[in-house]
């Protein structure tokens, strides 16, 4: 039987760039059960002395998360950070307008930063540029990073933290292009405010890096124009521009869903082009990079009623708790392939979110924590993708999709570290086996072991039993002896299962 054929050309001298460890970030927002009964649940059998769940922290380490964005998200745009510091018994609950939830205010800046520090995860803080502005943003930097002897640093010390936290990465608001955002602004209003806030923040701590808000999605009516206008005000000040994108299967259009990585690729290329156009007009040699600080599979259109339709709720309501299938996990793996192939311009990315809210980790209050199917490709990529991303050339048949046009049947990414450890990531988007010839003239490639995720066709069901079933039936070790055929003349043939994502680890050496 003849199978579709693809060719991947790999050479150790052709490289995209260094894989920044911050590419494997995630996101904790005060939304639903992400914080309360997510990372934090005093009284849980695994809770530490600070009230944080040890089982969730252990899974966070296993997932390979390196950086966590906090506290939002839409939540940050009506958040007064000062109300969330000091003794918890003295804090007042407040109504979060973004998610229409009464926030108990038990976890705030200190609790989050100290938890992240204990777990060895870098924090990525966001400031409120919706309902607040320059003064509050600069004050928060001073509170987090300032030395003793100033108002806000001394408040931190009075609250029990002597040493500065040294937070290095800061978001200048969140999705300010979106009409849903509390304090939404047009590009000129936001660009001016972001420039002034960022200037003040860097006067407090010149060592920080800044992320300015890009478009919330590629289909926003202001996309492109937003990036160029905002960067015209902030280019010399900021380091990164943010991107957000979510993908889902619309009306049973499986082919388009499997091709989502092509949509992400085009989005990145267009944002990079917009940033570089601003640099060209300014005759600047500075290069703005991308912080893709929200991305995931999210059934936004089919499962979420919209923020304005949520009733006012208390006690960490179950909001946006999407459950995932093997198909969703294959798409997440393919999106990671796309991110790796843009390692030169995307040093930061955050899978949104970490726990319970469209998340790879789920919990039950007072009960267990478990891995969703999307956990596995992320954890595997975070573990294997080290060193530098190789600049592969992929020749593959294409197929037509309704949402993305023609997309390649096979996608690929690869990384190699200084010791020659090789990782190869491959997606077969089609419904039959594909044979991939990896051409590596001038190099010896050895693939030693692999893992694969297969797409399923069953609806995802809430709870650990379904997640365990998908893990048993869709997530498996690759039989390398059967799937990989070393060839002569510097080539290796790999058989990819239908609708699958596969990760190989091995060695790369010069011939």
From TrEMBL:
It catalyses: Hydrolysis of terminal non-reducing alpha-L-arabinofuranoside residues in alpha-L-arabinosides. Keywords: Carbohydrate metabolism, Glycosidase, Hydrolase. Residues 293-500 form the Alpha-L-arabinofuranosidase C-terminal domain. It holds the Pfam family Alpha-L-AF_C. One of its GO terms (biological process) is polysaccharide catabolic process. It comes from the Bacteria. GO terms for molecular function: alpha-L-arabinofuranosidase activity. Belongs to the glycosyl hydrolase 51 family. Signal peptide: none annotated. It comes from Luteimicrobium xylanilyticum. This is non-reducing end alpha-L-arabinofuranosidase. Its EC number is 3.2.1.55. Homohexamer; trimer of dimers.
């Amino acid at each position: 039987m003849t199978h579709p054929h693809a060719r991947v050309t790999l050479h150790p001298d052709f490289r995209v760039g260094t894989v920044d460890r911050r590419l494997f970030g995630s996101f904790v927002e005060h939304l639903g059960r992400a914080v309360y009964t997510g990372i934090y649940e005093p009284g849980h059998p695994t809770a530490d002395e600070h009230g944080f769940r040890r089982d969730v922290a252990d899974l966070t380490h296993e997932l390979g998360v390196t950086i966590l964005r906090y506290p939002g998200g839409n939540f940050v745009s009506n958040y007064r950070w000062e109300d969330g510091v000091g003794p918890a018994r003295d804090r007042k609950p407040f109504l979060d307008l973004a998610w229409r939830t009464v926030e108990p205010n038990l976890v705030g800046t200190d609790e989050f930063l100290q938890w992240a520090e204990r777990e060895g995860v870098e924090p990525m803080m966001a400031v409120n540029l919706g309902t607040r502005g320059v003064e509050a943003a600069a004050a928060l930097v001073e509170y987090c990073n300032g030395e003793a002897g100033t108002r806000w640093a001394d408040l931190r010390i009075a609250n029990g933290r002597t040493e500065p936290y040294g937070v290095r990465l800061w978001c200048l608001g969140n999705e300010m292009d979106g009409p849903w955002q509390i304090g939404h602004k047009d590009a000129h209003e936001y660009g001016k405010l972001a420039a002034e806030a960022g200037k003040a923040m860097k006067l407090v701590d010149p060592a920080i890096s800044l992320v300015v808000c890009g478009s919330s999605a590629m289909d926003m009516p202001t996309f492109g124009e937003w990036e160029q206008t905002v960067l015209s005000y902030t280019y010399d000040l900021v380091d990164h521009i943010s991107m957000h994108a979510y993908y889902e299967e619309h009306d049973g259009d499986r082919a388009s869903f499997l091709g989502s990585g092509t949509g992400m690729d085009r989005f990145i290329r267009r944002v990079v082009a917009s940033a570089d156009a601003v640099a060209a007009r300014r005759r600047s040699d500075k290069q703005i990079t991308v912080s893709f600080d929200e991305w995931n599979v999210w059934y936004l259109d089919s499962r979420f009623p919209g923020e304005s339709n949520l009733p006012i709720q208390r006690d960490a309501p179950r909001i946006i708790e999407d459950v995932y299938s093997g198909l969703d996990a294959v798409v997440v793996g393919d999106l990671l392939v796309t991110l790796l192939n843009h390692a030169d311009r995307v040093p930061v990315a955050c899978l949104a979110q970490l726990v319970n809210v469209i998340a790879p980790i789920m919990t039950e209050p007072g009960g267990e924590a478990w891995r969703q199917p999307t956990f596995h490709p992320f954890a595997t990529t975070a573990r294997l993708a080290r060193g530098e991303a190789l600049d592969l050339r992929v020749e593959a048949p294409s197929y037509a999709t309704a949402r993305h046009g023609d997309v390649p049947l096979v996608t690929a990414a690869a990384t190699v570290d200084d010791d020659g450890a090789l990782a190869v990531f491959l997606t077969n988007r089609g419904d039959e086996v594909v044979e991939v010839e990896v051409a590596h003239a001038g190099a010896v490639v050895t693939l030693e072991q692999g893992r694969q995720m297969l797409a399923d066709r069953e609806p995802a069901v809430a709870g650990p039993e379904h997640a365990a079933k998908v893990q048993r039936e869709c997530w498996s070790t690759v039989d390398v002896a059967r799937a990989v055929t070393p060839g002569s003349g510097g080539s290796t043939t790999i058989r990819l299962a239908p609708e699958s994502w596969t990760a190989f680890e091995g060695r790369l050496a010069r011939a």
